[in-house]
Amino acid sequence: MSYEEDIRQDTIRQFDFLKDSFKVIRPRRLSAEVARDRFSEVFDFLVHREKFNTLCTITGTDEGDDLGFIYHLAREGGITLNLKTRAPKADPVIRTITAVFPGAEIYEREIVDLFGARVEGLRKGSRYPLTDDWPADEHPLRKDWKSEENK
Amino acid sequence: MHNSHEHEHEFKIPLGPQHPALKEPESFSIALKGEKILGVDIRLGYNHRGIEKACEERTFLQDVYLLERICGICSHSHSTAYVQAVEEIAGLAVPPRALYIRTLIGELERVHSHFLWLGVAGHEIGFDTLLMYTWRDREIVMDLLAQLTGNRVNYGINTIGGVRRDITPEQGKDILAGVATLEERTKYYIQIATEETTIVKRLSGVGIISKEDALRLGAVGPTARASGVDRDIRREDPYAAYAELDFDVITDDHCDVYGRTVVRLKELMESFKIIRQIVAKIPDGPIAVRAPRKIPAGEAFSRYEAPRGEDVHYVESNGGEKPERVKVRAPTLANVQTVKHMLKDRFLADMPIVVAAIDPCFSCTDRMVGVRHLDGGKKETMAWESLRSFSLGWHRARGFDVAIAEKKLHNLIKTQKSPA
């Protein structure tokens, strides 16, 4: 069995509900989707037990009624895992992962600015990348926000 | 604020937003106690241009040209990272010859970038002779890139499904000749950097970050490898033609600016090795396959070892002509977060070389144009030239004399056999 399959088997043995969503896409590429309320435990398991000790970045997405968050994790052997979760736009709150990955701060701030997410536990600091005078209700990477030339 | 009984003052020195050494804007806010840095706040975003949004409003093919322009130095890195993702989603079998050409351009880009960096680093410590020689040498590789692609930067060599231009045997000969000269020069720079005591001392013990902290804070590329982190995307997640090429991943255990210098110099030697293999082994065949206008629904995560470190692109297609989502995380965004750590408890005079040593590209990192007006009344604001002059004077007063290194470098270059 490949490393990728090993990781998949280990993880679904621990979390049965991931059975269908945890996929080996191709060598060195894994993907899984987890509900927000189970995110922490799955994340901790993958980072500490399955040794995904690198965070490449976090991608925010506009999923219509929800905001999506894809955590791009990586480990030895060049194996990456896209761990996705969602939060409704009515309650677009996630918890910070900066205790585990201090470098996540800038990626979390980016999602706050560009998607209007709220990240619990994120310490006070400068926003990124928008200016301080940017209108509070405008989130440029949401699908309903149009740039000037496209309005 | 000013107590005449205290001879140590704590005050903040904002630097920027039109930042110094780095010709793109960035903002550092430094808390200083006497001469020591207590803390650094970094404000990014001045160069943010809304490129990810712009990608959603253009076709997949138009985005190749857009993304290439994130940065003039790592342009091929972004272009390749992106097309790889799109090609994976579309299930395209890129011809081997195209992969070799992509790799060739990528390594030539690494060479020009590292030569550029050597000059910048030299400039930061007052070693302008190094700047002049390395930027002169860099013209060899810029000429090769212009010859191969038509451009010195933003090469436009990639298309979805392959590359747009082939290389000829004559160009192969020119490449080998250029690499021979560059390799000879690089050996001189290695000698100066590693054997000239004044330079070694100047760069050592500055900008320290341990291996554990480099990993914890997410450092990438030469910045991480100089702290012993044995990671290079070309080896562990091979793309383009790297799986078929023989090269070493360079690491160093000094954990400081000296280590970062050594890593980049030795990486240059590995790049020359790779380029020679490509010219020798490049397979025959077509240089592109046709790509559909509409990319099937799907997603892909692509990683590329840019000169500055890991560059990642995530692309999602909804089955249409324009991407649903394009996410880019350039290497500098990962590395800039280590700068605070490197500067803590250090002297203000160390700042220029420490920042320069992560080889920052704020164009890769910040992609929105913002305008900030400096408050003319602020007394603590220090213009870059002032900080650099201060740094040069500070080190000179402590015995750093670049004249010896300059003389040595002049003499070494005079002994060269290759044509200028």
Could you characterize the architecture of this molecule?
- The complex is a heterodimer of chains A (151) and B (420).
- Chain A has one domain (3-126): 2-Layer Sandwich (Beta Polymerase, domain 2).
- Helices cover 23% and strands 28% of the residues of chain A.
- Chain A contains three helices and seven strands, in the order αββαββββαβ.
- Chain A has helices spanning 3-14, 39-49, 104-115; strands at residues 23-26, 29-33, 54-62, 66-74, 80-88, 93-95, 118-120.
- In chain A, the strands form two sheets. Chain A has a five-stranded mixed sheet, with helices on one face. A two-stranded parallel sheet of chain A has the order 6-7.
- In chain A, β6 (93-95), α3 (104-115) and β7 (118-120) form a beta-alpha-beta unit.
- The longest helix of chain A has 12 residues, at 3-14.
- Chain B has a domain at 51-334: Cytochrome-c3 Hydrogenase, chain B, CATH 1.10.645.10.
- Chain B has helices at 51-56, 60-68, 75-90, 96-124, 128-149, 169-195, 197-203, 211-216, 221-225, 233-236, 257-281, 331-335, 339-343, 351-356, 362-365, 384-397, 403-414, and strands at residues 10-15, 27-33, 36-43, 47-48, 158-159, 162-163, 298-306, 309-317, 325-329, 368-369.
- A three-stranded antiparallel sheet of chain B has the order 1-2-3. A three-stranded antiparallel sheet of chain B has the order 7-8-9. Chain B has a two-stranded antiparallel sheet with strand order 4-10.
- The relative contact order of chain B is 0.20.
- Chain B starts with 9 loop residues before the first strand and ends in a 6-residue tail after the last helix.
- Chain A binds chain B through residues 26, 28-29, 53-57, 59, 61, 70, 72, 74, 76-78, 80, 82, 101-103, 105-107, 125-131, 140-141, 145, 147, 150, and chain B through 41-45, 48, 50, 52-54, 57, 88, 215-218, 233, 236-238, 299-301, 303, 310, 312, 314, 316, 325, 327, 329, 333-334, 336-337, 366-368, 370, 372.
